[in-house]
Design goal:
single chain; alpha/beta; TIM Barrel; eight-stranded parallel beta barrel; 9 helices; Aldolase_TIM; thiamine-phosphate diphosphorylase activity; TMP_synthase
Length: about 220
């Protein structure tokens, strides 16, 4: 299975704040056991040594579960541990810069918020996936711009890249986003802030039926 066809299903994003009193590696292990296909390591702290150690542990864990590990925002960290790729936002490194550092095989995803034109630009620049959102009220980014499911429908018609939906997604509201064109659902709180992380991930995984293959 090539790197693009692996971009499908539950995309779990870590939140260090939610892991303060728990073992991050164990949290991610539970998400993987529940069916997460992709893990994004997201830590905005300045603790370089801890971030390096955590990312290395998560990469090993993802390899064991045949899942992908992407790094949020940090080119140096992604390069140093040999992560599968990186996720870029508006204020992060440019896509060409990331490609030059990480190479042609790296997965590079780009946040395009609620703007189709940004997605078109990212597509032309060679992004491997496009992320839109937030679609619902988000605990992580409550002030993020609002996106509409129609954006997914239009983007899925126009763009060849897999699409990610993010922002306040739960097992109850995620299905219509998949129907609208999302190949992946990116989730933080509804997985890692739950008592049973494995069960929470499994509930999301059930939304992706066998017939819902990547485009």
């Amino acid at each position: 299975m090539n790197r693009v066809t692996r971009l499908h299903g539950l995309y779990a994003i870590t939140d260090t704040a939610l892991a303060q009193n728990q073992n991050l590696t164990e949290q991610v292990a539970q998400a993987l056991l529940g069916g997460a296909h992709i893990i994004q390591y997201r830590d905005k702290s300045g603790d370089r040594s801890r971030r390096q150690a955590e990312a290395e542990c998560l990469l090993k864990l993802c390899r064991e579960h045949h899942a992908l590990l992407l790094i949020n925002d940090d080119l140096e960290l992604a390069k140093s541990i040999g992560a599968d790729g990186i996720h870029l936002g508006r204020d992060d490194a440019s896509l060409p810069q990331a490609r030059a550092v990480l190479g042609p095989e790296a997965i590079i995803g780009v946040s395009c918020y609620n703007q189709l034109e940004l997605a078109r630009e990212a597509s032309r620049a060679g992004a491997d996936y496009i992320a839109f959102g937030r679609f619902f009220t988000s605990q992580t980014k409550p002030d993020a711009v609002q996106a509409d499911p129609e954006l997914l429908r239009q983007a899925s018609r126009e763009l060849p890249q897999p699409l990610v939906a993010i922002g306040g997604i739960t097992p109850e509201n995620g299905g219509p986003l998949i129907d609208a064109g999302a190949d992946m659902l990116a989730v933080i709180d509804a997985i890692f802030n739950q008592t049973d992380i494995r069960l929470a991930a499994a509930r999301f995984n059930k939304l992706f039926q066998p017939e819902d293959l990547p485009r």
